[in-house]
Specification:
Helix content: 25-40%
Structural class: alpha+beta
Number of helices: 3
Order of helices and strands: EEEHHEH
Strand content: 15-25%
Strand order of the largest sheet: 1-4-2-3
Distance between the termini: 23 Å
């Protein structure tokens, strides 16, 4: 897995995860990029990611290539001193740029409201 914090590992903001084999992406927001990426990478490697779409794609690609170098984490917007509400608004903006009903975007929802996250899948497929 490749981490591209660009010197912003401790900052909050918007990020994307790219599967360089399938071309699919996931958009998310974080209070700390480094901590959020640690959560994603740990859950993917253990087979327990909350988004079954990204987990199944990860498993398939890992089986094909034998490593996880195809997963990349990129900072797309640093939001120093931002609130969670501000980050959710920007997350929705970025998701709307890529959202395509799970063809090339892992996010399940365009809109993030309340405690709901845009990555939860109700089905394992």
């Amino acid at each position: 897995m490749k981490f591209n914090y660009e010197g912003n590992s401790k900052f909050p903001g918007i990020y994307k995860i790219i599967n360089t084999i399938s071309g699919r992406i996931y958009i998310g927001q974080a209070k700390s990029f480094q901590q959020r990426w640690y959560g994603h990478s740990t859950s993917l490697r253990s087979g327990k990611h909350q988004n079954r779409f990204i987990q199944n794609d990860f498993n398939k690609c890992f089986e094909q290539v034998g490593n996880d170098d195809f997963i990349e984490f990129h900072v797309i917007e640093v939001m120093d001193d931002s609130t969670k509400v501000q980050r959710k608004e920007r997350e929705e903006h970025w998701i709307s740029q890529f959202y395509d009903n799970q063809i090339n975007c892992y996010n399940f929802h365009k809109i993030v409201s309340g405690n709901e996250r845009s990555c939860y899948s109700l089905t394992p497929e």
